[in-house]
Amino acid sequence: MDEVRDEAGLAARKKALRAQMMAARERAHGEYGGKAGEALAALAAAALGEARGRTVSGFHSYGSEIDCLPLLAAMADAGWGTCLPVVVRPREPLVFRRWRPGEPTEPGRWDIPVPRADAETVDPDILLVPLLAFDRSGYRLGYGGGFYDRTLDRLRRLKPVLAVGIAYSAQEVEAVPRGDNDEPVDLVLTEKGPVRLARQEAPPAGS
């Protein structure tokens, strides 16, 4: 019974913080707009290193998320393999299909564009991860589906990966409510630059 109450309390705290941080992100998006995505692109080389045959996953922004496609395009131009996540089924890890900015897409879950079904599937070395809130321990608050938590758990069992949260600086909080299955990110990139996390930062995958 105590475990059920704890889970219910955690869910309630996350729900309340989601509403608060959605509003904070909307305000930041209204202030910075497309300039935030361009700022991230300028940070790519210094923050993430050289390609060296590695693959990075991005995402098509949804709502007030920072547009990370300029960053993904810059990395593709620098020799990185690039891909996008695809939701195959609820409560399962994401699948990644190879894709370069400018290539055709098709509607995915929530009508978010995804690579075509015949695209090659890959396991990325670096993941650009959307979020609603983050803290200096590297924990992030997502939308509640658990897709990136399950995905990071799967990939980290296979090989070294680097999870990079993509956020406005206004999305930082003192502490994100977290449970046993919540996976941290290794680095956060904001429109103001990389955020140094208190947890030991992992080196770029393959370094």
UniProtKB/TrEMBL annotation:
ATP binds at K14, K15, A16, L17, R18, R140, L141, G142, Y143, G144, G145, G146, F147, Y148. InterPro entries: FTHF_cligase, FTHF_cligase-like_sf, NagB/RpiA_transferase-like. Signal peptide: none annotated. GO terms for biological process: folic acid-containing compound biosynthetic process; tetrahydrofolate interconversion. SUPFAM superfamilies: NagB/RpiA/CoA transferase-like (SSF100950). It catalyses: (6S)-5-formyl-5,6,7,8-tetrahydrofolate + ATP = (6R)-5,10-methenyltetrahydrofolate + ADP + phosphate. GO terms for molecular function: 5-formyltetrahydrofolate cyclo-ligase activity; ATP binding; metal ion binding. It is an enzyme of class 6 (ligase). Its EC number is 6.3.3.2. Substrate binds at E65. Its cofactor is Mg(2+). Keywords: ATP-binding, Ligase, Magnesium, Metal-binding, Nucleotide-binding. Belongs to the 5-formyltetrahydrofolate cyclo-ligase family. PANTHER family: 5-FORMYLTETRAHYDROFOLATE CYCLO-LIGASE, ATPASE INHIBITOR/5-FORMYLTETRAHYDROFOLATE CYCLO-LIGASE. This is 5-formyltetrahydrofolate cyclo-ligase. It comes from Kaustia mangrovi.
